[in-house]
Amino acid sequence: MSPTTPPRRRPRLLARLTTVCLALSAALLTPATAGAAGSGNADAYRSIGSVDRTDWMKDIASDTSLAALSLPGTHETLAIHGGVFTETQEDFGDSANTLAAQLRAGIRAIDIRVRVTDSHFFAIHHGVVYQKANFDDVLSKTQAFLKQHPSETVVMRLRAECPYSDPGIADCVNDGLNITPQRIESIFATYVANYPGLFYTPSTNQPKSAPGPSLAQVRGKLVLGAFDNIGDDSGKFGISTFNDHKEDHWGASTVQEKWNYVKANIDQAVGGPRDQLYVTYTSASTAPARSPYEYAGGVRATTGVNYALMQYLNGGGGNGRLGIVMMDYPGWALVGDIISRNDDSVVKGGDRAIWLVNSDKTYVNTQYNRCMVRGPEFDSSKTGGLVTQHACQSTPPSSHQWGAELPSSFDGKGYYWIRAANGKCLTVPYNNGTPPSAGTQLFWWDCESRWFSGNQMWNIIPTKVGTANGYRPAYMFINNWTGQCLSMDPATAADSGGKVTQDACPK
Hints:
Blueprint: E1 19-21, E2 26-28, H1 41-44, E3 70-74, H2 97-104, E4 109-117, E5 121-126, E6 129-134, H3 135-148, E7 154-160, H4 181-194, H5 215-218, E8 222-228, E9 246-247, H6 255-271, E10 279-281, H7 292-297, H8 305-314, E11 323-327, H9 332-340, E12 347-348, E13 355-357, E14 363-365, E15 370-377, E16 384-391, E17 402-405, E18 417-420, E19 425-427, E20 443-445, E21 458-467, E22 470-479, E23 485-488, E24 498-503
Parallel strand pairs: 3-11, 4-7, 7-8, 9-10, 10-11, 12-21
Antiparallel strand pairs: 1-2, 4-5, 5-6, 13-14, 15-16, 16-20, 16-24, 17-18, 19-20, 21-22, 23-24
Helix pairs in contact: 2-3, 8-9
């Protein structure tokens, strides 16, 4: 049996595969690191816990676009008063102290609803209920947080909460004469002027919304994502595309129906264009039938949307960019699951399972700075041989050159061949059908063109590594059959001709 004969079982897919730009060819999005995954409903619901996530964005590459991030957020961020059909968040105190607690726990997207008071000010409301906080509280708490943690950014969805005419029994009423959308815009402009340097300026400028920024542009800033209910909502403020890919079926009749909507939008975010913002509201309420906490936390013996989302992410769903996820009563583990989806944008140090891919087609190990080499043949047939490593050369020979290529002769399932300059494929030993252990040396062999062969298929995972001048793109290569990463043998790392192996992937 040839070393490329496929294992007699269906290979385990490691990630949803989305094409991105590679130096030599396309590459694929990373699956998230699970971290400390939650297991029970309490880990997903109504307990953001004491985990300190004040600086979780500091290791994310600054050229990452805001749209490419996965941001945990809260729906009706300060709704902690008014009873079960009005309250949506765990109560950490008035005057936006609840917001301050959320920011410490890792929340980076907020939903603020304002009512005009005294014709000049914004008070925070959920419908008719005043939430014992004012817009100054929101801005001062956010400003204090961002000054202490300048690596972070906060995205705010702002909404004029009160209707302009014919309010219902549960609606607020603006306080003042002739409160129009134009008047509300003018009040907002005064707040922006009173907090110089706080807002990402392009998001607050009229007459149209701003293009999506990079993280470098918004670190230490409050970004206005959208300002809703100020007339025709034509995008005078905010970030373009903020409301273009939005799930907000707040009146879904059942928890299951709402979860179906949430899952569909999460999946679209994973596979959607990385320069487009996706916003998913996991919240719903159908007073008097079902309250926000029942949708979030469950009804009697059934669990809610929060637990369903946590389990979906823990189980491998949503592997990639999730966009902004606005939640009622989030739990600490669910917040962590969303944050972990940013792993592909995190700058990492050198690791023997992380490789640079250069324009001269060399694959350079980031820990040992050695090049992957097509080593000596097994025999005179030249059908295969060992994969080794050597010191890199300024003009690399063909034995040092590799490329990533989608198989065209069969359904490649979205995985890649890593092909040597002689056309042979990077191969994990078949080992009589048993996945070989970590540390097994790899070899090059004829590429299998008749069927899907998992031991020659690689998921290409983009990441970044730090350099003296910042960072540069790098990649992990995960074998489809074994789930192990392309790596180097530490014991022979200093030796010319040392082993290139498969080993555990870095966390």
